[in-house]
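If your schedule permits, I should be very grateful for your opinion on a structural question. Please examine both parts with care and let me know of anything in them that strikes you as inconsistent. The record follows directly beneath this note:
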Amino acid sequence: MSGWTDAHCHLQDTFLDEGADGLDAVVARAAAAGVERVVVIGTDAATSAGALEVAGRVTALSAYATVGLHPHQATEDLAPVADLARSGSSRLVGIGECGLDYYYEHSGRSEQRRTFAAQVRLAHELDLALVVHARDAFDDLFDVLESEGVPARTVIHCFTGTPEDAEGCLERGCDVSISGIVTFKNAEALRAAARLVPLERLHVETDSPFLAPVPHRGRPNEPAFVAVVGEFLAELRGEDVAALRAATAANTARLFRLPPP
């Protein structure tokens, strides 16, 4: 079934080197699996530049890019990322991945909040979508978003919270993106949250090369597997697969201001 959009993936060389084969092969498999669009996500200055490079190089499907500073890199200088955001690239569609991660805390919490807030302001300044990483940090995440103002086009990527966290995101106007984690055996709370997200606010993603869905766990993830996530979600939610595919593709197009699918 064609027409899938992978709303969040990492196809830069630095990520593919972790086990997947080359970009051309990964993209070809995605196209063969019915993926028509991917959004390649930056997590620091180097991978943000790489996301823009990949988005400009891919031809087998439509590719777009975001630039951002991940909470793990919150101590790094945001200026190079901001410069990329202001570059005027036709493939640039969002700010992030940015946010808060209190599970690993590779950066201090105050530094994470400061860097996240700066990127929220950048999204407002440039009128770009905001791509948010949130892990074990929803209270502080909501505080920052409310303090800075939630950008009109904001998505919580790879959502892993509770149904209550999902409701908090939706109440603040955020969309919710679901990854292959929803297929994992121990993800019952996430499945409950995924059931309550309105179809018009839902996205599907792979977060490749991480988090390959069942039955592909243990191997590098790739955009070709976004259909696995979408088909699982459709069954979970009692919806037609084609309807979910069309809706999530349209939602991601709206979020990032892409041409209609």
Observations:
- Strands lie at 4-9, 35-40, 62-67, 92-101, 129-135, 154-156, 175-178, 202-204.
- The mean pLDDT is 96.
